[in-house]
């Protein structure tokens, strides 16, 4: 069932949340569609193993309190995941009803119960085990680190998260825009984790303020969930011009530093007329839709493949299309052009056509000779990917590091090559998804608990 939304005309000039959520009546109607399968396929599609039929059944009976109780057994970030998880590729893809009609809207129901609990002010804290005296240090307050913290805090360990920024949430706070994931929702869910006894220390850059080796003298075990915050660039001429942004910088200025509220907030952000965003994932969609909300006259997504290959969630592509983002498919930027004052004025591009599939299974874009053209713009945002920041790897020689700068960790346990150190989330996989990071956090927490309780 679709969810009420702000209209495109209304939402394109504000930063308020686009999707408005189910009413209790809509939630009950939707929950009644669940077949309560004996062997639910949907659960197998959820990286954090939420008991999906178990939380949907009480919604159908109007018992929302019981529903959130079931959810919380496996999920500390329900309001976040209900909003941003790619359910269409996971639980909903495996829903039996989905074979014939729309699958049950698991994500929307997840969001509904989490928001209902917050609105009612009924947040229950689970029982916390007696103190074990064991100390756990976690690097990064993103979804991976928060999941480890929540899972281990209830078992009675002393948990401290060390976070480089002045706010928790990682990409949830500095990357994903307010109109898709309100920051109050993130703060609310992090507050819940703090109520489990987790301490968060901000403005603390592990690898600089203190190294992993040094911290291990104080802590029994460590988890590294430092994400993938190092942006990639195209490597074409002109990328040092003014008006050229990485998506990281652009979105951080707007989301974390509230640039769209300048001068009430300190961080300025350029308000250009013509913007080109390079890339086709969620980060590109978020950047383009942000540029529109900042008042740009025209925003282009410049993508070298076709619509079918866009890696972004379909829902976000459709939202961007409805809002008026222009998609330039099969287009490759080759050079950024500036004026005498060093400001970006245009982009030289080439047209492409699709050839044979490459290693990723997607058809390889091939350049069309002589198809160069100039696109006039006064800002560009590069959203083509990220790697982990090398600060930790450079100061921790004991850690095995992969080809793309990622920390190597065992898939089954999250263990790294360094004794008493686990890792998970984007810092291991490269840029992925919230729920994958949470799933990795859960796996690592299980293995860390085994170690802490003397099992290995
Ligand atoms: P992060 O969220 O990156 O958190 C890592 C944390 O570690 C950060 O707070 C960082 O400040 C901190 N840190 C880094 N280095 C250090 C250090 N040396 N010392 C201390 N702290 C440190 N996923 C989805 O599922 N759905 C979406 O719709 C979606 N949209 C996205 C949109 C954007 C714009 C972006 C950028 C990503 C999006 N993603 C989405 C991806 C998703 O947000 C990430 O995969 C997920 O947040 C990874 O979680 P993490 O905990 O591994 O890392």
Radius of gyration: 23 Å
Structural class: alpha/beta
Helicity level: 25-40%
Tell me the number of strands. Answer: 16
Terminal residue distance: 47 Å
- Biggest pleated-sheet summary: 5 strands, parallel
The whole-number mean of residue pLDDT values reads 93
Low-confidence stretches: none
Q: Give the spatial strand order of the biggest sheet.
A: 3-2-1-4-16
Assembly status: single chain
Describe the structure.
- 32% of the residues lie in helices and 16% in strands.
- It has helices at 8-11, 24-31, 41-44, 52-60, 64-72, 78-84, 106-120, 143-153, 171-174, 183-195, 212-215, 247-256, 282-293, 314-323, 391-395, 426-429, 434-452, and strands at 135-139, 158-162, 199-201, 221-224, 230-231, 244-246, 274-278, 298-302, 326-328, 331-338, 344-357, 363-367, 373-376, 379-382, 386-387, 421-423.
- Bound molecules: flavin-adenine dinucleotide (FAD).
- Flavin-adenine dinucleotide is lined by residues 84-86, 139-145, 162-165, 170-171, 175-176, 204-207, 225-227, 229, 251, 282-283, 286, 313, 389, 391-392, 425-427, 431-435, 437.
Q: Which features would summarize this protein structure in a list?
A:
456 residues, alpha/beta, five-stranded parallel beta sheet, 17 helices, 16% strand, binds flavin-adenine dinucleotide
List the helices and strands and how they pair.
Elements: H1 8-11, H2 24-31, H3 41-44, H4 52-60, H5 64-72, H6 78-84, H7 106-120, E1 135-139, H8 143-153, E2 158-162, H9 171-174, H10 183-195, E3 199-201, H11 212-215, E4 221-224, E5 230-231, E6 244-246, H12 247-256, E7 274-278, H13 282-293, E8 298-302, H14 314-323, E9 326-328, E10 331-338, E11 344-357, E12 363-367, E13 373-376, E14 379-382, E15 386-387, H15 391-395, E16 421-423, H16 426-429, H17 434-452
Parallel strand pairs: 1-2, 1-4, 2-3, 4-16, 6-14, 7-8, 7-14, 8-9
Antiparallel strand pairs: 5-15, 10-11, 11-12, 11-13
Helix pairs in contact: 2-4, 4-5, 4-7, 5-7, 6-7, 8-17, 12-13, 13-14
The structure holds flavin-adenine dinucleotide.
